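Appendix C: a fully annotated inverse folding record. The material below is reproduced so that readers can follow the format used throughout the book. The structure is listed first as tokens, followed by the designed sequence.
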């Protein structure tokens, strides 16, 4: 059974509405029946592989984005965390800067000539010059850092919960907080993020799924099922979970990979037909 079913079993439970009025109010007049709350059913999407490229199996992919023909990748693990510029066709690392061993690198995003990189539990975000990877400054924040993306004005950050924090790029302060829901139920384990055509795409940690989120309401409007993307023959004991989404706005191409995967995939996304599993 596809893992997309797991998401729906958890989230697509019936939601009861209304509550008990006070005894005084009930005695005065019978309560008018309330209309049931209507929750939108997320669209179901699948994929087609358009091209396959090499990916460094030593890269524990935490963040990924596309800029001017190159992939930018943030990697994790203490002592192995880096920010990289990668040649997509070959997987060759063209530029890199490492983090101190005490930092476990997480999501990355580009905004205004700068690259922002989160750390997992250290509560610190680093800012680099996008051209030469020169460190510019850092910010301190509460909680964990997981995924990071941008709408071109603000940064959007996940922490593994059902929350996405909209942050000011100048001071990293929280502007507002989104609770992500599907069918009225919270969706947690939100990991790596990407902004695609006005929506936030988020990896669900430990699942081969991406949820598509309305950035105004937090509602999940779609679920992309990536089960079967990686061939069993490509897996090794070091291979970890599906993670990493990059979008080339100029071409409309989407690239995905995983932690310590040996391949990067260019994919086409399309809606499933009714009844398709």
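Designed amino acids, in order:
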């Amino acid at each position: 059974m596809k893992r997309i079913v797991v998401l729906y079993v958890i989230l697509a439970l019936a939601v009861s509405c209304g509550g008990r009025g006070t005894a005084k109010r009930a005695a005065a007049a019978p309560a008018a029946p309330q209309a049931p709350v209507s929750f939108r059913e997320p669209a179901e999407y699948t994929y087609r592989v358009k091209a396959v490229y090499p990916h460094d199996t030593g890269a524990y992919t935490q963040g990924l984005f596309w800029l001017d023909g190159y992939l930018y990748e943030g990697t994790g693990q203490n002592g192995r965390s880096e920010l990289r510029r990668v040649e997509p066709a070959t997987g060759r690392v063209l530029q890199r800067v490492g983090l101190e061993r005490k930092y476990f690198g997480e999501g990355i995003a580009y905004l205004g000539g700068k690259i922002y990189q989160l750390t997992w539990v250290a509560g610190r975000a680093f800012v680099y010059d996008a051209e030469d990877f020169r460190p510019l400054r850092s910010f301190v924040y509460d909680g964990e850092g997981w995924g990071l993306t941008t709408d071109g004005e603000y940064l959007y950050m996940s922490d593994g919960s059902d929350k996405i924090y909209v942050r000011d790029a100048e001071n990293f302060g929280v502007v507002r907080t989104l609770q992500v829901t599907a069918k009225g139920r919270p969706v947690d384990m939100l990991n790596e993020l990407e902004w695609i055509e006005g929506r936030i795409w988020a990896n669900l940690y430990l699942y081969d799924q991406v949820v598509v989120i309305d950035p105004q309401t937090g509602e999940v409007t779609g679920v992309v099922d990536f089960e079967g993307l990686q061939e069993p023959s490509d897996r090794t004991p070091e291979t970890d979970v599906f993670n990493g989404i990059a979008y080339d706005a100029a071409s409309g191409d989407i690239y995905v990979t995983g932690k310590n995967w040996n391949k990067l995939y260019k994919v086409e996304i399309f809606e499933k037909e009714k009844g398709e599993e």
